[in-house]
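Hi! If you just cloned this repository, the fastest way to understand the data is to look at a raw example. We've pasted two of them here, unedited. The first protein comes first, obviously.
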Amino acid sequence: MALALVLAGSPIARAADRVRVLVIYAADGEASRRLRAELGAAGLEAISTPARREDPRSTLAIARAARAVAALRLVSDDDVEVLVIDPETGVPAYSDVVRSTGRASEPRALRAVEQLRARLVKLQLLPEPAGKGEEASRAGSSTVEGKRVSSDAGKRRRSDIAPSAEADRAALGRADRRAASAVDLWLSGSLGATAAIGGLPPGLVARALLRLEVTPRWAGSVFGLLPLTSQSVHEQRASADVDVYLAGGLAHYSLIANEELWEADLGLGGALVVAAMRGRAETPALLGRAETVFAGALLGEASTSLRLATSLRLRAALLAGLVTPRPAVQFEGRDVGYWGRPFGTLLLGAEIDIGHALGSRMPSREK
């Protein structure tokens, strides 16, 4: 009987002889059965874990709850997510998605298990196999998933299931190249309100943002902020409308990363400010005119996100900044209002992960 080994203070447990791997699926079909069969053939313990398609929990959250060190998740009919968790810290040590190439006979389950096993060996969660390739060569034919295969096919099959140390390193190199070329890109849209000291009323705004997550802690984004309502100032003899546009970028540092449902980060950056002002005279003695003013802004942002699904997050953000030189509205040579010293914008919106979709359309760099 295999003895259970629980690491002191660790949120993850694993068996002394066999690593527990979750097989997460929405429907138990041929794809999930193949994954379990490949895991068993590779000497890994497969744990069936049903999860609805709309389940908002991440793969990491499900694996942590089951105290598993690794997981394979059928995220779609064509994609298998591969996750390995560091048993010491409980944070992801490796994450990737094995995508279908479109070939009907493609051994996708075998590719996913091979990639998982190679990473487990590198992290020393599995011992390197010794001499198993020779045993497979002498074994002749074998039965895999209830089907009899020839002697040559048995040799190839077993060498894939129990690769040598050289094959492990080769598979690991392929996995590293796939991870290095992965694109983690989020597109978001949000609505909110902005206000500034200087006599102008608050206004409604919309923001579009593109966010590239380079590491679990660091990300960069570019955005455009558009006014939905004008900010107006009125006096007895004149009035003016001000529309403020921002185009900028932010560098983000995640304070809470790799969490199951929510994350929080801080950002710092800058923006180009375009203030379009339109003056109107209420008396024939004055003349109203339109003017566009350009300025720069130093920005800071605090945001938090809630994961609703694997590729969908809800994000709330507070964007604040200082504008120089400040745009000012003048009536008869005197300032009656100005904008941006300082200003704050509260935003709420949704973001979707378009990186996986783009990655699946990009040609592979492997030969």
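Ok, and the second one:
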Amino acid sequence: MLYHKDVENKIVDLTKSVVNEEKSKIDPKKHQYDYHFDDKVYYRKYKDLKKSPWHFAWCNQDDQFIKKWRYQMGYDFVYPDKDPYFPELAYVNENGYWEFGDTVLMKCSIEKYVERQVERAIQNKRRTEGSRRKLRQIAVDTGMNIADLDKMEKSKREKVIDGLRNTVMDNLGFE
């Protein structure tokens, strides 16, 4: 059985690859894209965003997922007849999209993708800070000393959190 990890890094960049025209069978009307290569170059993500303008992802074909990905996250389909990318092991479905299993290949500009990841990191940090404030309030309410909480390493902090949780549960009458 094949999984998405088997195909996610196997997207051939047709602009940099050398396609063997004699062996390849390409007929867009029949959705047939059987490429054979003399030299194959895979699409890579570079730190220089100008070299890698796209982020590729496999999206579930459910209409709700696709709407969310297109309109909220900025993704669009990778079209075999318009985009110079060929995902190995995938095929073109009846709608004209690259398909693998129950997913279709989509792309998003790398700028939008990076911007969204930064926003997620900011949200996660805010959640963590909010959790820390709640934890401190619980500690104050239960009479625990929290002066050294910020100085502790992660493992010690987890033990303190477990201790706080147990103390709070005990104080509230949980067994």
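That's it. A detail worth noticing about the second one: The chain has two domains: 4-109, 115-171.
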